[in-house]
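Risk register update: the risk of archive-format incompatibility is retired. Evidence:
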Amino acid sequence: MGSNSQIILAIVQGELNGLTKLSEKLCIYRVPRHLRNTKEEEYTPMVVSIGPFHHGDPKLLPMEEQKLRYLHELRHQAINKDLSGYIGMIEEHENEIREYYAENITTSAVAFTIMVNFLEEQWHP
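Archived output:
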């Protein structure tokens, strides 16, 4: 290695040593702004919001009623029709669920539970 290689190696190693470990839980990230700025339309939902990042976007509100219809139908078909028990389970695990997001989700407990209820039903009927 050349003389610059040792300097580069030391700098890169210092940067790597300064990183925090990846969380085993974090798996839901917001798309970085520099990527969104290149082609924002490719990273922005056009029909339905999933999770808190785009929840409440006026362009996506028409689908909220449809999501309620899906929830109702899935609940009707489910063996366990006890919606209150399911909501209680989400409330019980709210903090744990929030930990899956890479950034702090400031949505109220009620709004968060409602959003998670929709997410769970769409992927785990």
